[in-house]
User: Which sequence fits this backbone?
């Protein structure tokens, strides 16, 4: 009886590991101003052609994003730069950036966001302005990511977010652009799953990339969470037994991944993949993701897993 139970447990663990690997196989990765050295690191650990999203940093020259995109492309990876509308003084400046990204780095997909600047740099005030301008298709952009917020936006109400998403989607699709959604990171699977249900109930069947906070210290996770308005997740994370005493312990998003992977395996969610924010550093996050994709997992009884980094 004990031998049979042990065999069933091993079979269950093997199945769970396969589900996790399948869910994380197409995981995209986000980095802030990666240089040639970072691109080499990403090439070493990530799958060829992996999508690398390049964050838009306020008050930094767009040329930095272009250089990052070139480095990522030369490393055999797919650059997906953020285009933050409120960072551009004019549509003309945006056109120059798009032309260079397409021509110099072969960029076909961008992440289009409004940008969190309190005041726009000029007369471009929203992502909608850039979509409506027709610049994206003019300069070879065929696909865009739009932001999603499972736990609400820190500054924008839910009804306004929904209306803006629907309007941007309709305009983008009318121009033949492929659209996907990348969510703000979350520290708890429940609000993510509820939000995906909310999308599907409204007939929004776009591919969804679920934002995951890469492995780092809990204090860093909480700092980003509070800054981004991820309140529900913070409460769930802080309530876990013993975590209050381990603010500087390295933690990972493994329990969230396990739950999402199981939902995907059971076909309760469809067209959903992962997107990793490299809060703990590009190299550390890439090595951890590589370990997950390679299946170097040790499952834990709390629903999470440990990654063998060797």
Assistant:
């Amino acid at each position: 009886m004990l031998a049979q139970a042990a065999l069933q447990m091993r079979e269950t663990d093997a199945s769970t590991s396969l589900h996790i690997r399948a869910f994380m196989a197409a995981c995209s990765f986000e980095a802030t101003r990666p240089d040639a050295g970072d691109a080499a690191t990403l090439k070493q650990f990530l799958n060829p052609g992996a999508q690398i999203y390049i964050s838009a940093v306020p008050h930094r020259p767009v040329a930095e994003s272009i250089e990052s995109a070139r480095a990522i492309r030369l490393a055999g990876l797919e650059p997906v730069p953020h285009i933050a509308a409120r960072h551009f003084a004019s549509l003309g400046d945006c056109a120059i950036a798009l032309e260079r990204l397409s021509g110099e780095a072969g960029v076909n997909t961008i992440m289009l966001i409004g940008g969190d600047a309190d005041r726009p740099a000029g007369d471009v005030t929203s992502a909608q302005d850039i979509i409506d301008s027709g610049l994206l298709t003019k300069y070879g952009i065929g696909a865009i990511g739009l932001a999603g917020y499972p736990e609400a936006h820190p500054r924008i109400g839910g009804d306004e977010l929904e209306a803006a998403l629907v309007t941007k989607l309709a305009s983008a699709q009318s121009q033949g652009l492929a659209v996907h959604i990348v969510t703000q990171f979350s520290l708890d699977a429940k609000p993510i799953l509820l939000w995906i249900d909310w999308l599907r109930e409204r007939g929004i069947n776009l591919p969804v990339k679920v934002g995951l906070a890469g492995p780092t210290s809990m204090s860093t996770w909480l700092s980003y969470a509070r800054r981004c308005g991820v309140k529900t997740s913070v409460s769930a994370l802080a309530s876990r037994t013993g975590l209050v005493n381990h603010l500087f312990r390295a933690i990972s998003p493994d329990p969230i991944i396990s739950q999402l992977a199981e939902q995907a395996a059971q076909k309760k969610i469809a067209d959903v993949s992962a997107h990793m924010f490299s809060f703990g550093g590009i190299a550390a996050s890439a090595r951890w993701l590589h370990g997950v994709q390679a299946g170097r997992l040790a499952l834990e009884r709390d629903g999470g897993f440990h990654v063998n980094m060797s």
User: Anything to note?
Assistant: Residues 49 and 78 are 5 Å apart (CA to CA). The chain has twelve helices and twelve strands.
